[in-house]
Each structure stands twice: as C-alpha cells, then as structure tokens.
Amino acid sequence: MKTLKNLFLDELADIYDAEKRIVKALPKLAKAASSTDLKAAFLAHLKQTEGHVKRLEKVFQSFDQKAKGQTCEATVGLLLEGDEIVAEFRGSPALNAALIATAQKVEHYEIASYGCLHEWAGLLGNKGAARLLEQTLEEEKESDELLTKLARATSNEVALGGGDGTSMTTTRTKRTGGLARNSRTPVARPKQSLVGTR
Ligand code: FE
Ligand code: FE
After folding, report:
1. For residues 148 and 151, what is the distance between their CA atoms, to the nearest angstrom?
2. pTM of the shown model
3. By the 8 A CB rule, do 121 and 8 touch?
4. pLDDT (tens digit per residue) in 37-56
5. Is pLDDT above 50 for 173?
C-alpha cells in the first residue's frame, strides 16, 4: 500500500533530479542571455540552486534515506523547450524575454513541487525537513518575482520595440534582429543543450 510517505519520497527523488539538471542548465541560460542583469540573475540563482541540492540531501537524510534522483521528465521537457526557444530567438530582440519565460516555467514547476513537499513533510511530522523545504520554496518564489521584474524593466520592452537588450535603457529602435523563420519550422537544437543526459 502506497501512502503519503511513499509519495513524498517519490516526489523528493523527482525534484532532486530536477535541481541537478537546473544546476547544469543555468550557466547555459546565463551564457545565452544578452542582458547583463539577466545573466547576473541566472548566476545568482545557480548559487542558490546548488544550495537546493544540498538541502534536499539533508531532507533525504532526515528521513534516513540515501539521496537518489529519479528522472524528472517534466524538467527534461521544459529544458528541451528552452533549447528550442533559445535556438529560435538567438540574435533577436526577444531573446531575453524568451529566456525569462523558459526560466519562469521551471521556477513554477519547482514552486508547485516544493509547496507539496513542504506541506507533506509537516503532515509526516518532520519539522526539520519542512523548514528546509520552505526555505527553498521561498527562494524559488523570489527568483520568479525577480524574473518578472527583469521582464517588466527591460526585456519585454526590448522584445516589443527592438534593440539588443544589453543595456537597461529601453530606447525603442526599429526592429532589426529576428530570424525570418516561421515559428512552426523545426529548429536545430544547439550543441550546448540545456538538458543533461536522461
Ligand atoms: Fe531550485
Ligand atoms: Fe529555481
């Protein structure tokens, strides 16, 4: 009979795998970004994400379990979509807005996962684990809010009006970038994929 404890441990293994994939993807997102603020935000979240992996290891430990990941197909899928969008928008004024959208989808997945895990740890009577999961949950929410701010401050405006998105000033220039490509045309995945091996 599978109970909440089994569900909790399954989801813990899922998010552990997701976090490790995100650690590998964030430097690539930072490299792809043309906005210096966005680059810095991705690199700052990379540091936090390394902490999320360590926190999860402590959570496993607090349940007397060895830390073990289980392929998170949702994160694999989100990062594959990220690969496509980066390839499609590289060199275009909408690149940073596209990167933010990719990152926010990942953050929302994490927020949903940590929200459940935090709740369940409490129900399972493990206050220490609940506290650790709540800390990460708060960092994911802050990261999501920061991405919204960056989108509103610069990236969406640049995407709307053109420009290269490298500076904070949002002068509207005639759209010059952009790949003249039908969005339905399949795009070759970049060599530096956001997704690690499954
Ligand atoms: Fe995380
Ligand atoms: Fe995150």
Report:
1. 5
2. 0.85
3. yes
4. 999 999 999 999 999 999 99
5. no
Q: What angle do CA 67, 74, 87 make, to 5 degrees?
A: 120
pLDDT of res. 55: 98
Q: Cα angle at 116 between 111 and 121, to 5 degrees?
A: 125
What's the gap in Å between 136 CA and the centre of ligand 1?
7
Instruction: Tell me: pLDDT of 194 over 80.
Output: yes
Residue type, 50: E
Query: Residue 115 Cα, ligand 1 centroid: separation in angstroms?
Result: 12
No. of helices (H) and no. of strands (E), the chain: 6, 0
- Say which ligand is closest to the CA of 19: 1
Residue among 136, 9, 29 at smallest CA distance from 78: 29
CA distance 182 to 82: 17
How many angstroms does the Cα of residue 22 sit away from the middle of ligand 2? 8
Burial of 188 (0-12, 13-18, 19+ CB in 10 A): exposed
User: What tokens does 172 get?
Assistant: 């509207």
pLDDT digits (tens, 9 = 90+) for 70-104: 999 999 999 999 999 999 999 999 999 999 999 99
Domains and CATH numbers, the chain: 4-158 (1.20.1260.10)
